[in-house]
Amino acid sequence: MSAQTIAEAFAPAEARYRAVIxxxxxxxxxxxxxxxxSGHIVWALGCFGSDHLNPTVLDFNLGALNGSxxxxxxxxxxxxxxxxxxxxxxxxxxxxxxxxxxGTIKRMVLAEARx
Length: 115
Fold this sequence. Notes:
Layout: H1 3-26, E1 37-45, E2 56-61, H2 69-81, E3 88-97, E4 100-107
Antiparallel strand pairs: 1-2, 1-3, 3-4
């Protein structure tokens, strides 16, 4: 039996185990169902494309919502889908509810750096 076949055989059990551990460890931080968390996110999209720091959150405030693995995954997916211009900074104003972001996004204009 190949290693890939063994990994595939155990994948469903490992996924269930991982989900249980995540819930036991971070479940108290998970966003509450049907609760609306209003606020903003400011992020930058660097000029080096798809490295692990893109997009980078610069400022985040969604009220009483604390960080969690579920919020982080949803936020990074949302920011990647809405980051259009490399080297730009964006701001989202709105709310987060049931793992969806609703609101407006605008590209921020920065003053030129003085020499």
